[in-house]
């Protein structure tokens, strides 16, 4: 069993963390996974934004104030560029470069609520983002209360039309339809 780490081994670890699985790095360096983990901890090496400059889907979702599944949907269906990398454990995560994110946003502006993005929270922030933020209309979504949900179900059970229910609840027809579908499926 080795004890002292050489500079060459440290360099290899720094260059390959996040690219290779921890077990592969340990095997290549002829060290245990625990030894590699301990060295990473002592060196402050991780596969986070601070180390790589990339954002995880969860970090990006938090900055955009949206659900992480939305980010994964953009990756799967709308061409958001990403890198899939191994973390300290065997699990792989999606990492998105801020530059790639902003290039994608420039082509997909309608998918982003710029009013929710804090200034310079995803750097480097292009100049055009500030203009979008200033022009952004705040979200008009109104959270449904339990009382409103009950009234919606009661009105439908009494035979009211969607238009009548929407009028009584001061909601759009689409909002009432979607909420009713979600409540029915529960």
Report what the structure shows:
This protein has 186 residues and is mainly alpha-helical. Helices cover 56% and strands 6% of the residues. The protein contains eleven helices and three strands. A three-stranded antiparallel sheet has the order 1-3-2. A hairpin with a 5-residue loop joins strand 2 and strand 3. Helix 5 packs across helix 6 and helix 10 packs across helix 11. It is elongated and about 75 Å long. The model has no long low-confidence stretch (mean pLDDT 87).
Keywords:
3 strands, 11 helices, mainly alpha, 3-stranded antiparallel sheet
Q: Care to give the gist of this entry?
A:
The chain has 186 residues and is mainly alpha-helical. It is built from 11 helices and 3 strands; from the N terminus they run H-H-H-H-E-H-H-E-E-H-H-H-H-H.
Topology of this protein?
Layout: H1 7-16, H2 22-29, H3 33-43, H4 49-52, E1 55-56, H5 57-64, H6 68-78, E2 83-86, E3 92-96, H7 98-107, H8 127-135, H9 146-157, H10 162-169, H11 173-185
Antiparallel strand pairs: 1-3, 2-3
Helix pairs in contact: 2-3, 5-6, 10-11
Supply the number of helical segments.
11
Pattern of helices and strands: HHHHEHHEEHHHHH
**Strand order within the widest beta sheet:** 1-3-2
Task: Give the low-confidence spans.
Answer: none
Helix content: 55-70%
The Rg value, from CA coordinates, equals 24 Å
End-to-end separation in angstroms reads 57 Å
Question: How many individual β-strands?
Answer: 3
Into which percentage range does the β-strand content fall?
A: 5-15%
Largest sheet: 3 strands, antiparallel
Q: Using the alpha-carbon principal axes, give the shape.
A: elongated
What's the average pLDDT? Answer: 87
What class, by secondary structure content? mainly alpha
């Amino acid at each position: 069993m080795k004890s002292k780490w050489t500079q060459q081994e440290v360099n290899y670890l720094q260059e390959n963390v996040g690219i290779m699985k921890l077990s592969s790095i340990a095997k290549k360096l002829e060290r245990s996974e625990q030894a590699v983990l301990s060295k990473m901890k002592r060196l402050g090496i991780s596969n986070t934004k601070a180390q790589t400059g990339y954002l995880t889907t969860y970090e990006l979702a938090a900055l955009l104030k949206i659900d992480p599944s939305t980010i994964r949907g953009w990756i799967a269906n709308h061409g958001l560029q990403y890198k899939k990398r191994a973390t300290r454990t065997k699990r792989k995560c999606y990492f998105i470069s801020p530059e790639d994110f902003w290039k994608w946003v420039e082509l997909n502006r309608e998918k982003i609520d710029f009013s929710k993005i804090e200034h310079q929270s995803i750097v480097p922030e292009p100049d055009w983002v500030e203009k979008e933020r200033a022009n952004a209309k705040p979200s008009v979504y109104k959270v449904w209360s339990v009382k409103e949900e009950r009234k919606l179900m009661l009105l439908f059970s009494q035979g009211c039309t969607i238009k009548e229910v929407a009028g009584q609840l001061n909601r759009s027809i689409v909002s009432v339809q979607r909420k009713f579908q979600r409540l029915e499926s529960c």
